Amino acid sequence: MANYTFLLGTSFLELGDVPLLHESVVVVGYPQGGNNISVIKGVVSRVESTQYLHGATQLLAIQIDAVINPGNSGGPAIMANKVVGVAFQNLSGVENISGRYTGFCSLGLSWQTAENVQLRMHFGMLPEMTGVLVSRINPLSVVNTILKKDDIILAFDGVPIANDGTVPFRNREHITFDDLVSMKKPNETTLLRVLMDGIISFPLQAAYWDK
């Protein structure tokens, strides 16, 4: 917009952390069926990776037991005066009206699990090692000149990756390591621990890109 005077006298909300299970969250927005602002309270019932309807990307999502009405997409989910998420729901004719989409960070590669014992032995993984096998790297990926096909990613930012591709998250919860990647800010750096040609490499520092 060319004129931002409508923002005068307003204050911005800070971003908060991912809420714990059974914590209360308030969703604010303007759903269909009325003109006034709508406020609804719910409890966090689940936090896990799910496929987003817009973009078909697998990312972390917070599920609450509150009924979010059609048209509420884009409204903030607030806890302790901090924004912990954004409500989204697929509704034809209402979503993707306009605006800039920044996207989420990605390593720009495909991987497969290493749960098979023979696979781990073939690629030189020691019994105490866990990780995932790199199966394809996007030519435009920032790690294209660092990693290669058949490398084993063992850890991300010091967090060990299980053979099924998951990492520990809070109290007895698990998410995929891709979710850790998507939480990064564009152009932020990270440390990868990788098994290359049967030898544990030194930690790699890879810049993130905004896809």
From TrEMBL:
MF (Gene Ontology) = serine-type endopeptidase activity
Q: Which domain of life is it from?
A: Eukaryota
Q: Name one Pfam family in it.
A: Trypsin_2
Question: InterPro entries of this UniProt entry?
Answer: PDZ_sf, Peptidase_S1_PA, Peptidase_S1_PA_chymotrypsin
Which PANTHER family does this entry report, sorted A to Z? PROTEASE DO-LIKE 10, MITOCHONDRIAL-RELATED, PTHR45980
What is the name of this protein? Serine protease
